[in-house]
Write a structure and sequence with these properties.
It contains 10 helices and 17 strands. It is α/β, with parallel strands linked by helices.
Length: about 375
Amino acid sequence: MARMGIGIIGCGNIAATYLRNARLFGDVELVACADQMRETAERRAAEFGLRAMSVETLLAEPDVDLVLNLTIPAAHRAVTEAALAAGKHVFTEKPLGVTLAEGRALVAQAERRGLALGSAPDTFLGAAGRRARALVDAGAIGKPVLGTAFMMGRGMEHWHPNPQFYYQPGGGPVLDMGPYYLTMLVNLLGPVVRVSAVARTGQSERLVTAEGPFQNTRFPVGTPTSLLSLLEFAGGAAVTFGASWDVFRHSNHPIELHGTEGSLRLPDPDTFGGDVSLSSRGEPWQDHPSEPERFGAVNWPFDAPRLANYRMLGVADLVRSVGQGRQPRASGRLALHVLEIMEAILRAGETGEPVAIEGGADRPAALGEDEAAGLLAGATA
């Protein structure tokens, strides 16, 4: 198929990762970039050989077929709406919108216009996610029965110079990090149908210790910082998902799934690699390293690689999906379902009552190894 021209809106730190990875994929052609701060766009343009322009000019640019929306979450809806109105396909960083209503409006607009809409995270398409999906689909653990997923740490104030917004309504550990864990779980187990939760706030104030203008100052916490939820899946499995910024140290694995024939252990779903481990009927763990596999090799940070980071993989799959007339795997529909789950966790934590999930999502099609290889530059379709 013909290469699709991509224009990036939002040229901050995350843009560098997408731009560096773009060269890996054959259907992706970077065209232009824009940012609210013109000098930021010009700096990225010079670094990666793009044309810097205003947002309005980029949206009117005929060579731009797809807009990659890398703005801050509060701007996701406005930028995505404008791009869709301009007749462009869109892939946005997470979350799809900051509320379920925003997400529903965007999915409806894209479908009404016949345009593709995708959203991060696409980490489930990496080597670890593909291995876990293949094992689950092959029946390696039998019928999934229960599981655990934990995202736990001490929050942002020890490294972020301006962390206050993370601790206010619209922030918190579920909305910030939940998409990685929940998207991986839906990919493996299918849609969620009901959520229960409890919420706690460990500290009413936080102390900024990171270097910057707010170092050694305190700020109030306006949203729960620890939530424990129970996710009930349509297929019958139940998973405890905990997200907290009140934990100094723990020994919980990011994700474990247990079924009638065995157990599966997954690495951090915020990366594309790491070891996937399988225990068949209580046998010792058998590790499946990701490093030898496509989109599993360590490549990030750029100056001292220690993780696998292949952001742009979901964009490449979306581009290919347009030519094939199918849904992208990291689709707007999948992101909308995850957004509804996250809102349900927060609401259940506030009210103490279970919340039914009204909108489902199809489990995304597995990304096979041959198809993953076909996305790479130099591959034949």
